[in-house]
Design brief:
Elements: H1 3-25, H2 30-47, E1 53-54, H3 57-66, H4 70-90, H5 93-100, H6 102-126, H7 128-144, H8 149-166, H9 191-217, H10 227-243, E2 250-251, H11 262-278, H12 281-286, H13 295-315, H14 320-335, H15 338-354
Antiparallel strand pairs: 1-2
Length: about 350
């Protein structure tokens, strides 16, 4: 392992901490989430996979929004994780993707980008100064420093946190968590949980395909993306983490893939994150960093990155009927959730087929 491997791992850890704070703001606990990172590290070593898992803003925000309370949120993540594990271990995932079609999957992801943008702007009502400073600094950083998402999240979090502390803005006094207490959170099952789990599973399918392939391509051909394997260990990590009260850990676009030894660097990153969570350092960090500091990153990720890129893929090289189906998937996802968007788009698609 080289110094560049270590620096890449530390960079991704720095990228993950603000999103960990976002997860904590929705009530997800630290230590159980560390279990998910350990599963990811062991699985990457076992499979020889250079695609690590970590905190992913999209799934955190979606689970937090769909669940009315922490128990529903945990149940949504648990059942989604179980579904994804089954899809991965049976190899059914590729069948589902082929059945839906690439344009629907991409359009669904574009709709998720709109959802993230909406979530980021809601922060202006909840904490105007912090959210506005976060969005402003994220916008400036992204466009003036090479469109680098790692720089973007670091700068917007630091800048908005400084603003909050300089102006003595009350942002809740940090996250209070009894991190030493570990207990099973029995999942519940109701219509909200079922719909939420299906929505989260649909989002995860799209994210695993997109993020998994992007990360693998950064390894200069040394590693390939096995989406079924990624789905197995990310689904298992989610199920175990949420069963004890932790948040989701999913595939990310990881800078560790560009290091000299991407497998070792990715595993090191997950181990470092697990240690931070096990030691209960997140609540201490949250006393200085407000949860809304990450909203600038959410805005850039949703409005500038996720929506345009996926919309371009969804509407390229398609027939007028394909474009209508894609537009339906994107609009309904943005207005509701990825599962409803996927379902309605499939109905429209096969109406065209029939008639």
């Amino acid at each position: 392992m080289t110094i560049n491997d270590i620096l890449a791992a530390l960079g991704v850890v720095l990228n993950g901490i603000p999103q960990a704070l976002l997860a904590a703001s929705y009530g997800f606990s630290s230590v159980p989430t560390a279990f998910g990172f350990i599963i990811g590290a062991v699985a990457c070593l076992f499979y020889g996979s250079a695609i690590p898992i970590s905190f992913q803003a999209e799934t955190i925000a979606l689970a937090g929004m769909l669940g009315k309370n922490i128990r529903e949120r945990l149940s949504i993540i648990f059942f989604s994780g179980v579904v994804m594990f089954i899809l991965g271990i049976t190899g059914v995932l590729s069948t589902i993707v082929n059945f839906a079609g690439a344009n629907i999957i991409n359009a669904m992801m574009a709709g998720v980008g709109i959802m993230l943008t909406r979530i980021s702007l809601i922060g202006l009502k909840e904490s105007r100064v912090v959210t506005a400073s976060s969005i402003f600094s994220a916008f400036i950083t992204y466009f003036f420093f090479g469109q680098n998402l790692v720089y973007t999240i670091v700068v917007c979090v630091i800048f908005s946190s400084l603003v909050a502390n300089i102006f003595k803005i009350d942002f809740g006094g940090g996250i209070v968590e009894d991190y030493k207490k570990i207990e099973i959170k029995k999942p519940i099952l109701n219509l909200t949980v079922i719909r939420g789990a299906l929505a989260l599973a649909c989002l995860t399918i799209g994210a695993n395909i997109a993020f998994g392939n992007i990360t693998a391509s950064m390894t200069n051909g040394g590693y390939s993306a096995n989406i079924d394997e990624l789905t197995i260990y990310s689904g298992l990590a989610d199920a175990v983490s949420s069963l004890f009260g932790g948040g989701p850990v999913e595939a990310i676009i990881s800078a560790t893939a560009a290091s000299p030894n991407p497998l070792s660097s990715g595993i090191l990153m997950m181990v470092i994150m697990a240690v931070i969570l096990f030691l209960g350092l997140l609540p201490k960090i949250s006393k200085f960093i407000p949860g809304h500091s990450v909203h600038g990153f959410l805005f850039i990720l949703g409005a500038i990155v996720t929506t345009p890129v996926n919309a371009m893929l969804a509407f390229s090289n398609g027939t007028p009927e394909d474009n209508i189906v894609a537009a339906t998937a994107m609009a309904v996802t943005a207005a509701n959730d990825p599962f409803i968007g996927l379902l309605v788009a499939l109905v429209v698609k096969y109406i065209f087929v029939i008639f």
